[in-house]
Design goal:
Layout: E1 3-9, H1 12-16, E2 20-23, H2 30-39, E3 42-46, H3 48-52, H4 54-62, E4 66-69, H5 80-101, E5 104-107, H6 125-133, E6 137-139, E7 142-143, E8 149-150, E9 155-156, E10 173-177, E11 186-192, E12 194-196, H7 204-229
Parallel strand pairs: 1-11, 2-5, 2-6, 3-4, 3-5
Antiparallel strand pairs: 1-10, 6-12, 7-11, 8-9
Length: 239
C-alpha cells in the first residue's frame, strides 16, 4: 500500500537499540503493520486475531513475532494470590520474549482500538508487569492509521494524498513506507516520546502514573504534528 510514515521525538537509533516493552496507541488494523515496520517488535495480541488471519497469525506465532493472550476479567471468587500468580506467569513470558526471542515487545495498553482522536483509559497490567520484571517501557504513540482504512465500512483511502516535502517541519523524519510523496493512501506519524526505567520508581503506581502522563502528552504532540504535515491534503478525509 502507498503509505508514508514519519517519526518525531528521539532518534531512530534509540528504537533500534531499545530492549523492552513498546506501548503504542491503537487506532486500527494498520497499527500492527506500521509499528512492526518501524520497530520490528514481537506483538501481544488477542486470540481473536488468529480467527481473522489464521495463516498469518500462525506463521507469526511460530516465528516468535506474536504472543497471544486471552482477555478476561477477574472472577468474584478469584483471590489476590491467584491474580498475582497469573501476573507473575505472564510477566515471565514477556521477560523471556525480550531476553530470548525479540528485544522489543509491542503492546497496545488501551486494550481496544478506537478510531476517534482520543486516548482511552490506559490499563495498568502492562505497567505492573514491567515494574515487577524491571523491563523498560518506550512511549510510542502514533496518529493517522485510522484514516487509512475505515474498518466498519471496509473502505480503503483512495490514493489521492499529496505531501509537499519542502513544507515538512524540521523536527520530523521520514520513516518506512512509500518513497513517493504523491498519490498516497495515507500518512502515519509516530512519536518516540521517552523511555521510562521502572527501577527509578518506588512503586508500580508511580511508574504507571509517569507512563500514563507521557503517553497522553506524546499523543497530543503527535496529533499536532499529523495535522501540520497533512494540512490542505485529503489524508483525514475518507469519504
Amino acid at each position: 500500500m502507498r503509505i508514508k510514515t514519519y517519526r518525531m521525538g528521539k532518534e531512530r537509533q534509540t528504537i533500534d537499540n531499545f530492549n523492552g516493552i513498546i506501548v503504542a496507541s491503537h487506532k486500527g488494523w494498520a497499527d500492527f503493520f506500521i509499528q512492526s515496520a518501524m520497530a520490528f517488535p514481537s506483538c501481544i495480541c488477542r486470540l481473536a486475531v488468529a480467527l481473522v488471519m489464521p495463516l498469518g497469525a500462525l506463521s507469526a506465532y511460530l516465528g516468535g513475532n506474536l504472543l497471544f493472550f486471552r482477555r478476561s476479567s477477574p472472577s468474584k471468587n478469584q483471590n489476590i494470590e491467584e491474580l498475582n500468580q497469573k501476573m507473575q506467569k505472564t510477566g515471565e513470558r514477556y521477560k523471556n520474549c525480550v531476553d530470548s526471542i525479540n528485544p522489543r515487545l509491542l503492546i497496545f495498553p488501551e486494550g481496544h482500538r478506537k478510531a476517534e482522536r482520543v486516548i482511552q483509559r490506559i490499563r495498568t497490567g502492562t505497567f505492573r508487569i514491567a515494574y515487577q520484571q524491571k523491563i523498560p517501557v518506550m512511549i510510542l504513540p502514533c496518529e493517522g492509521s485510522q484514516n487509512i482504512v475505515r474498518e466498519k465500512k471496509m473502505f480503503i483511502h483512495s490514493a489521492d494524498v499529496n505531501i509537499d516535502p519542502e513544507a515538512l517541519p524540521n523536527n520530523i523524519i521520514e520513516g518506512v513506507g512509500c518513497n513517493d510523496n504523491k498519490r498516497l493512501r495515507g500518512v502515519c506519524v509516530l512519536n518516540c516520546k521517552e523511555i521510562v526505567d521502572p527501577t527509578k520508581f518506588k512503586n508500580w503506581e508511580d511508574f504507571y502514573a509517569e507512563c500514563d502522563k507521557l503517553f497522553r502528552e506524546g499523543y497530543d504532540e503527535v496529533c499536532g504534528m499529523y495535522d501540520q504535515i497533512t494540512k490542505d491534503t485529503t489524508a483525514a478525509i475518507l469519504e
